[in-house]
Amino acid sequence: MKNAELSAIFDEIADLLEITGESAFRVNSYRKVSRTLKDLTKDVEQLAADGKLGDLDGVGKSSVEKIEAYLADGKIPAHQELLEKVPKGLPALLNIPGMGPKKVSLVWKELKVESLDDLKRVIESGELAELKGMGKKSVEQIADGIAFAEKSGDRTPMGLARPLADELVRQLREATGLKQIEVAGSLRRGCETIGDIDILCESDDGKKIVDAFCSLPRVEKILAQGDTKGSVLVQRRDGVDIQVDCRVVPAKSFGAALQYFTGSKEHNVRVREMAVKKGWKLNEWGLFDGDDKQLAGKDEAGIYKKLKLPHYPPELREDRGEFDLDKLPSLITVDDIRGDLHSHTTASDGKEDAATMAAAAAERGYEYLCITDHSRSSAIANGLSIDRMWRQIEKVKKLNESLDTLTLLVGCECDILADGKLDYPDNLLAACDFVVASVHSGMRQSRDKATKRICAAMENPNINLIGHPTTRLIGRRDAMDLDMETIVAKAAETGTALECNASWQRLDLRDVYIRMALEAGVKIGINTDAHAPAQFEQIHYGVATARRGRATAEDVINAWPLPKLRSWIKKKREG
Ligand code: DGT
Ligand code: CA
Ligand code: CA
Ligand code: ZN
Q1: Dihedral over alpha carbons 514, 517, 521, 526 (to 10 degrees)
Q2: Given a cut of 80, is residue 148 above it in pLDDT?
Q3: Ligand 1, closest atom to CA 260?
Q4: Tell me, what's the pLDDT at 152?
Q5: How far apart are CA 544 and CA 550, in angstroms?
Q6: What is the average per-residue pLDDT within 560-569?
Q7: pTM for this predicted structure
Q8: Candidate from 107-116, 140-149, 344-353, 544-553 with smallest mean pLDDT
Q9: Beta carbons of 226 and 245 less than 8 angstroms apart
Q10: Ligand 1: which atom is nearest the Cα of residue 196?
Q11: Model confidence pLDDT, tens digit, residues 465-476
Q12: b/e per residue, 48-60, with b = 16+ CB within 10 A?
């Protein structure tokens, strides 16, 4: 299917048009086509063959022509023209926080900036700060953004790696009829970013599997192709290359290899030491007594069992105290999640209305969904005025009455203003079933100010959850400077939950802070912050992160049945 390729090209056309200074209206029309293509459940080629392209949402006559041109000869003339007009290094600058299309266009035209290196040069020379419409503060922000991207290096967020790994595994299984195939490495451990993808296969014919792996359609370049191991580069959704390693082992070693290649290295060092203490040897081929007596290795559980260790879930294998646990915690799973308490609709910046979001949540088998659109100060996100919010409460309550399997809760995502005050009056918050409070602006405050700001919000009896508490964006923006111990203590004292925002760009709180919160007796909420139905699926990333923080279903408020959740909310409100 060419849906994804075409969607990416329309998005790139929109970027290029923005840089050349095209009107927002035209730019948005290309973004719309890109989104439609991305979410399409049918094959775009089939639709073209049936003459149905024009029926798609937002796809007009000129877009139909462009799609047909691409399907016919792999390129779109208007796209090619734009590529010739705009220097190659410019679109990448859009990924830097603080560099919107207007600024990219400005530095290109005024300072002849054509690449990241050029941009760094004009920051250092001071030319950028002197440019009309820039100013010292925005230059600082851009410089920070560049430094941050360079510091985080080329690791891939879990949300880009997971779908890719799943696709490769599926294709390899289809191509070879493999029975045992698993993703190992940091991705299996649920890490928020990963260096490369590791795939492990069980077969006696390693060469056949490695050859099939190296011929998968996504492979851009082969780095190594041997009898038991292959390494390739494939392209991420955003065009960046990522390495994928594939190893093949015989059945009797599959469990040992899975244990070895899941890591982490630090965890494995400890496990190997324990084997040595018993006079044994552990490697990727098995657990051995002497040179040839294999004690375990067929399956992973057998290795841990023989060593009298618990079968640690991969998320705990970091040598972060797992060996000191008396008993393994029963970690939360995606099946334990009963609802989502943070979601958006077209009332603010979501893509679908409440009825559609509710239907999608019900489809997932959820018992409840809370609609939490933005509050009035989030102007860019079309936050609701006080009047609109009162009407939203009525509307959602009415909609709830018409639903049978799912309970729709009404809430809001109320901005925590710079001074710690809330964006809505108390009576409005009290009329909601559940309230998320989040910071969306002024994130560069001092540690003291920022900590007091969030603590002040938690004092309000109507605030149930702090959304994405540190506001970090993985690889793009640092966490706010916060005194997490104070925040966690305040959450415990006030009966406020902290969020594990499941959006893969955020994963906020991150694993270590989740563990810190749980140890203080604080509850967490794992929510997707969905702005469209497909995003509910990101719950997997949040659950993986919460598992790394040792969360059980008991710790997670949206793993509770609704009556329990309601009485917990009531307890805080009634003091
Ligand atoms: P990544 O890819 O940087 O996100 O992290 P991992 O953990 O996936 O690391 P990777 O891909 O280099 O190797 C996968 C696993 O294989 C790693 O977690 C443990 C094991 N491993 C790799 N190299 C070594 C090594 O030199 N010593 C030991 N003990 N284990 C290794
Ligand atoms: Ca890896
Ligand atoms: Ca690797
Ligand atoms: Zn939100």
Answers
A1: -40
A2: no
A3: 20
A4: 63
A5: 10
A6: 98
A7: 0.81
A8: 140-149
A9: no
A10: 2
A11: 999 999 999 988
A12: beeeebeebeebe
**Could you give the CA distance from residue 276 to residue 289 in angstroms, rounded to a whole number?**
10
**Is it true that domain 334-573 has CATH number 3.20.20.140?**
yes
> Which of the 8 DSSP states describes residue 55?
G
Determine the distance separating the centroid of ligand 1 and the alpha carbon of 470, expressed in angstroms. 29
In the numeric block, which tokens belong to residue 511? 């694993």
CA of 559 to the centre of ligand 2 (A): 31
Quick check: 488 and 517 in contact, CB under 8 A?
yes
For 262-328, CATH number? 3.30.210.10
- The residue contributing the CA closest to ligand 1 atom 30 is 265
| Cα separation, 394 vs 389, whole angstroms | 9
- Least confident range of 100-114, 197-211, 213-227, 445-459: 100-114
Q: Does residue 272 have its Cβ closer than 6 Å to ligand 1? A: no
Cα(84)–Cα(87) distance, rounded to whole angstroms? 7
Give, to the nearest 10 degrees, the angle between helix 101-111 and helix 3-20: 50
CATH annotation of 3-152: 1.10.150.110
Domain boundaries, the chain: 3-152, 154-249, 262-328, 334-573
Q: How many angstroms separate the alpha carbon of residue 512 from the centre of ligand 4?
A: 22
| Predicted pLDDT at 134 | 84
What residue owns the CA closest to ligand 1's atom 28?
265
Q: For residue 269, which atom of ligand 1 is closest to its CA?
A: 29
User: Contact 288/281 with Cβ under 8 angstroms?
Assistant: yes
Could you tell me the two tokens for 34? 């890109």
CATH number of this structure's domain 154-249: 3.30.460.10
Residue with tokens 């540190």: 470
